[in-house]
Amino acid sequence: MTDLERCVAFHGHACGGLTIGYQAATYAAKLLDLSAQPDDEQVVCITENDACGVDAIQVLLGCSEGKGNLLFHMTGKQAFSFYLRSAHTSVRLVLRPLPHPMSREESFAYYQSARPEDLFDVKPATLPLPERAQLFESYVCECCGETVGSNWIRLRNGKKLCLDCCPSYDRFHV
Ligand SMILES: [Zn+2]
Ligand SMILES: [Zn+2]
Q1: What domain range includes position 112?
Q2: Using a CB cutoff of 8 Å and minimum separation of 24, what contacts does 25-29 make?
Q3: What is the CATH number of the domain that holds 100?
Q4: Mean pLDDT by 10 residues, the chain (174 residues)
Q5: Which residues lie at CB < 5 A from ion ligand 2?
Q6: What distance in angstroms lies between residue 171's CA and the mean position of ligand 1's atoms?
């Protein structure tokens, strides 16, 4: 299987969006020399959208939400920042507009055949990377009794509540 075929198998279909992510991941791997990385947790992606292309980045670079090396900074842009922690190098790739209006099929073919240099502007990555996945203290919500990471606990009238219990508490107890 080629890299692109692996992306399509994971994503479930071939599409322009997936191809954008494939091109971005491949380009970042070249720019930051990521293929030499034995430990893919050193590679971090901050994506600015949650569209099809993110799946290609997961497959090709091993970034995942569960490992904490796939982060979302939602601006709705086709932009992706890549970081190599061990080398302190990074790059932000921003998809350029199509050179002229295209149908969906035409743009799909364009994204597949274009060189990454022509697809993306290469900019410095400016978003700071968070520390590696932290373990938070947890508390038991005083309404539903379910355990919640401290980051997600809200205080209402001195009670510690989970996010789902806050609105109903406000409705019935205030
Ligand atoms: Zn898709
Ligand atoms: Zn609760």
Answers
A1: 3-123
A2: 25/56, 25/57, 25/60, 25/61, 26/60, 26/116, 27/93, 27/116, 27/117, 27/119, 27/120, 28/61, 28/80, 28/82, 28/91, 28/93, 29/60, 29/61
A3: 3.30.1330.130
A4: 96 97 97 83 95 97 93 96 94 97 96 97 93 77 95 92 83 59
A5: 141, 143-144, 162, 165
A6: 41
